[in-house]
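COURSE: Structural Biology Practicum
ASSIGNMENT: Worksheet 4, Part C
STUDENT ID: 0417
INSTRUCTIONS: Below are two proteins. For each, the amino acid sequence is given first, followed by its structure token string. Answer the questions at the end about the second protein only.

PROTEIN I
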Amino acid sequence: MEAWDIVVLGDGPAALHAAAEAAKSGASTLLMSATGLGNPGMAAMDGLSASLQESNNRSHREDTIRCGAFLCDQDIVAETTAGAVRQVDLLERRGLNFRRDLQGLPMVRKGPGHQQPRTVDAGSATAIGLQHLAEEQCMRHGVIRRGDQIPLTLVHTNQSVEGLVALDMVNGRIIGLQCKALIVADEGFEGAFSSGVVGLGMDMAFRAGVHLRDMEFTVRHPLVIKGTNLFLPTGLLLDGAQLHEATGAAIETAGESSHSINQAVSAAVQPVLDARKLGESAAWWGSLFRLVKQR
């Protein structure tokens, strides 16, 4: 039986960064995914928000809490927004090519729900850029990555994790893995209502007796192409794309929160996204447009 210090479930940016940090501290780390490696998932990546042009993170923190209808864990919000600038700087130094303003700094824009411009991105390369940088850190620190490994059962004794049982789809074998800690960082459960892609880690933890909370909150995205599982970033709206009905009536999105945009799109009879007037920003979305044409 294989023995590891840390086993991480998932293969998106969150799982990769968790595995890299664990290995960096000296722990023997295995990252395993139920799907093939290198897939960041279908979640839309609208960029990262940080108070780059503000003296502190107070406004960012308050905007996040307000848009979360005051249901967010405010301590986590405060810690996350306080460290956002450092994370953007770290990603930039590692090679993520953010869009630039005239001063050569990462260009910030006013995203949905924000009262100040603080959203940075790299166009359609944001998600894949984060994925590649995290993969590089895993290789640098010696993380072992395995795909097509389906977690089946969590092995535990007296509220302590001992390991897990998994199905190796490559060799068709049931394998046992011993570990001191298990990090669940795969997909959530929302895909059960849309794409069908769900994370198995939550199910495994639930069957082992772990209590899940906040299951009443589901993630919704306003820009999904009908009949597909393709998400379009809301950053398109910041670059000049417009939402309207098939009749031509405009759907107002300026200054609205993500929740309000979702409600407006849901209430529309036949919403249409007009992305013909992006100007110079169209070059940042080239790969996304090619993907849409292939669908």
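PROTEIN II
(use this one for the questions)
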Amino acid sequence: MESLPAVPGVGRVPAEPGVFVGRTHELARLESVVAGSGGRAVVVAVHGLGGVGKSTLAARFAELHTDRFSLAWWATADSPAAIETGLGELAAALAPETAVLPSEQRVELGVRWLATHEDWLLVLDNVTSPQDVADLLSRVRTGTVVITSRQRSGWRTVETVPLDVLTANEAVQLLTRIVRSEWPDADLAGADRLCRELGWLPLAVEQAATYLAQTRTSPAGYLDLLARFPARMFTATAEGGDAQRTMARVWHVTLDRLADTPAAGQVLRQLAWFAPDGIPRDLLTGEVGEPELSEALGRLAAYSMVTLTGNTVAVHRLVQAVTRTPDPTDPHRQPADIATARDNTATFLSTALPDLDPDTPANWPAYRMVLPHARALLEHTTPDTDTIQTSHLLNELGLYVEGQGDVGTAIGYLIRARDSYQRLYGPDHRATLASRNNLASTYESAGDLGRAIPLYEATLADYERVLGPDHPNTLSSRNNLAAAYQAAGDLGRAIPLFEATLADYERVLGPDHPDTLSSRNNLAYAYQAMGDLGRAIPLYEANLADSERVLGPDHPDTLSSRNNLAYAYQAMGDLGRAIPLYEANLADSERVLGPDHPTTRIIRSNLDSARSS
């Protein structure tokens, strides 16, 4: 066969898809590599996530360069046997009389033809491992081999072209052109949002576009179906479509290939509940041991299922969506396994916040690390699946975001925490009572005293009944109720309650306890609100000195106490003491809390007011 030239008209390349968009850079890269071959063999591996369009790119390249190659041959290459089949079919296409030969001889004839001819293109599509093609590549000296593979690593002796998702504009263009080819007057409002939800993955966009066109569904309608029936939509195929080319099936095949690393599927199910980007590896170490975790992440990265950057992991949002969608027919997505991964994620995130004080700036990095991943978990779960750890996470994050000024989000988290604690623990458990108190406090922060005060009153009554009048939680609840009365303008009830609570704090916890300091500050503020600066200012001054001594000058409570004292000086007309204190406190608050923190903004506003007096 070595002496036979390419037979005119012989070739096998899949038809180019009806719609092709983007990939200008990748096509130029392929062109550059081939053009610079100098007559030598050129081998290029296009690698990327399943569904990203590797085969489509290879087909487009072949179509654009039909005049360059004397023969273009496409071989499915997902196994050594498939590669041999493709080479044997090449031999039979070039010399039909060889079709009667044993397959081993036909394979050898196909390889020998490639080794002795020039100007051919061989596409090896969907190669599982570089080792599967190593023997073939070692024998070719001329020609062009384009490999497509999900395998990112191992291509040490060949050129590589990494393939990522489409740009946002390209994804919308792809969807629009596919839909309009069958439904010219389609209203595609919301196409950008749909493509964003699909993570701009070509296969997902193509699958959605075909569905829209055939069912006359709007982008918003498809998103609704995806939210309500994810398992069905991830496997939906158009009339006459290829059931193997769906999002769920493509990644099923990838995980089948990772069967030799059992922890890979386990770790991927865990990752599915986090935010797509910036997942700290430290949050995953509880799922499997460190050696197994590193191996699993390495294998997932090799198949482009995840991206590893430093100490963080990223996952395509659609890989996550499919992975966390139960399917009893898919061994990688068994309902019980997915539920276990969900609950473990709540545990890992909750454990990362071990009763930290959300008002202490030193703890904020931990909260900032956890927050985006907790939001993702909570967005993709329902309250009826919340565990104790989920409830703890909701409560902690509610307190943190409330302190950062995001009161609306805090209320949502704390309502869900209260309801989950009540369902899991009952109405009288300490955690349930604490969550009710926290929710009332956040209502107060939002200015909703109509909800805050009745909830405070009911919670205080239950605290006194369950824990007794001197329990610290009871004292805190009583102090909060007094503050709410003051906020409502009812100083007649607020001040006596503050005074009694402060006396109890000093007796039960001692004069230097942080809660005692807070209670004393609240009483001084109530005296000031009543116009009694003669009692307010000495109490503020003493309390500030104690706060600086006990908590330190940079603690948020100290900053608030200093602001209150400056405000009292201002109210007394003593701007000579008020303004310098405001100025120093503002500088400290900007340094410690940041320029946009609610406390910083209050201090800045008070300083502006004092300067304009």
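ANSWER KEY EXCERPT:
Q1: Strands lie at 42-47, 71-76, 120-127, 144-149, 159-162, 279-280, 306-309, 312-315.
Q2: The first helix runs from residue 24 to 35.
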